[in-house]
Amino acid sequence: MSPLFDPQLPADALLPLLVLASSLLPGLVIFFLGEARVRTRTALNLGGAFLKLGFVAWMIWGVYHGQRYELRLPLVDDLDLTLRVGALSLLFLVLSAGLWLLTTVYAVGYLEQSPHRSRFFGFFSLCVTATVGVAMAGNLLTFLLFFEMLTLTTYPLVVHRGTEAARQAGIVYLTHTMLAGALLLAGTVWLYTLAGTLTFAPRGFVSDIAGSHAGALTAIFALLIGGVGVKAALVPLHGWLPRAMVAPAPVSALLHAVAVVKAGAFGVVLIVYDVFGVEQAAALGLTGPLALVAAVTIIYGSLRALFQDDLKRRLAFSTVSQVSYIVLGVAIVGPLASVGGIVHLVHQGIMKITLFFCAGNLAETLGIHKVSEMNGVGRRMPGTMVAFTIAALGMIGVPPIAGFISKWYLGLGALEAGVHWPLYVLTASSLLNAAYFLPILHRAWFREPSGAWAERSAEHAVGDEPRTAAAGAGSPQLETGLLLLLPPLVTAALSLLVGLFASMPFSALEWSLLIAEREFHYP
Length: 523
Prior knowledge:
The protein contains 22 helices and 2 strands. It is an all-alpha fold.
């Protein structure tokens, strides 16, 4: 009998199911709401987001004290749909639940007068359901199912605008992600035939067959990493990500900071640590090539970002680079490097969602889409650009913002592992980050306003000039709609606070140290 129906099952064992249901059920209901049911739709969105955050917060205390939440639903033979919440999965859950709430607030303001809002928010909720399913997956089969659900629920968001550019981007996205699913499925089936299990284990579950199937395991590792590497935007599998920037700003924020690329990076962590085991992966010679791919991706993404005038494309290539810090930290093999990679899962998410919120504000309020159009915009939208500045400096690695903490631990981890070349990669990446972010800040703060938006500002009072309907209603005292301004201010403050208070209990860094000790078994 499934534990779901066991009368002796503790009530808190159902918490993983409640975490899923808190976005799944509102999403399904929203599909059937008329466009005019604005308050009902907003209440369902925000109610589900607060519920999810509450359930996740409930589990933090238990996991901290060693409790593991697990639910198994039998599928076929000895394969179960397994939802499991430990320290690692909870880190991703906190990121997903917290940023989903802020993205929901932002999306409500962004899409206030847009068509097809029920369709958008329905898939929006299902997308987050798939993401938390990925986070709670207790075996490779469960991970695969939610990973593919993520593809199906994000595609309608990418093509939401319905333009030709959106449709073409959707084709590219679907082609890449369906290929990823095929690779992941092939690797999963092959591994099951050899190992007889797909259940994640703290030091992997392939050690018993490594001696007799080394060649097959190498090929399986390549298939699995190729499958998750598409969503993680590893070079040369990254091509879908810049194209997907035609999607609305809340979707871009979701793709980069919460859902797709983070699910891919999280998948890399699971494959290295919970499928193969990091020691076994290193013994098979798999971590070295993975680290090389990560390093190439870091430098390539930064170089491509340098030459992008479109602001969202510049941020997209920045994501290609930054997410591979997570992969590099895992592939270096060592406690401090792993901590640096894992904590960057959270730090990059907070900083990058801030940047996309700000880019959305500039586009929807002033019609600014290009870096070359940003001259003097800091004077017109100071709150937005202060938030952008904090996040950009964090991406560069300026202390004490969150990005500095990640890079510091990655550098220390490389020295601890006795390899020095990652230090050169991190240094080059930081210099390139500065090269493509600092010119934006210089334009925004130190150049005279110019362009169409500046001409409008000369004719209208600040806060009163025309803005697109999607931006939402504003106030003469605000630079844009309150629902658009508040989320980036909150996430920018978080970017600073998680760096300043990195050593506090329950911080992302301290939790990553707990993961390294408890789940990765580092001393």
